[in-house]
């Protein structure tokens, strides 16, 4: 009888430890995360650079989605990327809306506006950066 009780206690302890280990492994499985936000900027006759980045729960970004819309009273150019290698998005004028989706592997993305012939405008950027979620450790 003593052996059965000892074996039963050992078995229960082993099951408990195995369950705790499996829960820890489950929480280390990477899952998907989206950092998102909205940036609203006034545009004037000088260059504007704004940036957005992944939040503190994200790691290893792989894609971004941008919707840039607004209006200007003339012409200007929008660029996205990082300062050393901007991609020209579009020449904008009057009311505009630009949608962009593509690969992205950096923590921070910049949007640059360069006026051509304008005095005032407004830019609204809705962004999402898709990434993996940081692993929580115990």
From TrEMBL:
PROSITE patterns: PROKAR_LIPOPROTEIN. This is Lipoprotein. It comes from Flammeovirga yaeyamensis.
